[in-house]
Amino acid sequence: MSSNDWPLWEVFIRSKQGLDHKHAGSLHAADAQMAIENARDVYTRRMEGVSIWVVESKNIHASNPSEGPSLYDPANDKIYRHPTFYKLPEELKNM
Amino acid sequence: MAEEHLERIFQDKIDEEIRIEPKDWMPDAYRKTLIRQMSQHAHSEIVGMLPEGNWITRAPSLRRKATLIAKVQDEAGHGLYLYSAAETLGITREEMIAQLHSGKAKYSSIFNYPTLTWADIGAIGWLVDGAAIMNQVPLCRASYGPYARAMIRICKEESFHQRQGFEILLTLSRGSEAQKRMCQDAINRWWWPAVMMFGPSDESSPHTAQSMQWRIKRFTNDELRQKFIDVCAEQCTILGMTIPDAELKWNPEKNHYDFGPINWEEFWNVVNGHGPCNKERLDARIKADAEGAWVRQAAFEYANKKKEKEQRKVA
Amino acid sequence: MPVVNKKKDSPIQDPSSGFMEPFLLHLADNALILGHRNSEWTGHGPILEQDIAISNIALDLIGQARNFYQYAAKKINEYPDRVVNSKTVTEDSLAFLRDAWDFKNCLLVEQTNGDWAKTILRQFFFSLYQSFLFEGLQLSADKQVAAISEKAAKEVAYHLKWSSEWVIRLGDGTEESHNRMINAIDELSKFTEELFIPASYELEAAKHGVGIDLTLIQPRWKEKMEAVFEEATLPTQKLKEKLWQGLFGKEGRHTEQLGYILAEMQFMQRAYPDSEW
Question: What pTM, to 2 d.p., does this model score?
Answer without folding.
Answer: 0.91
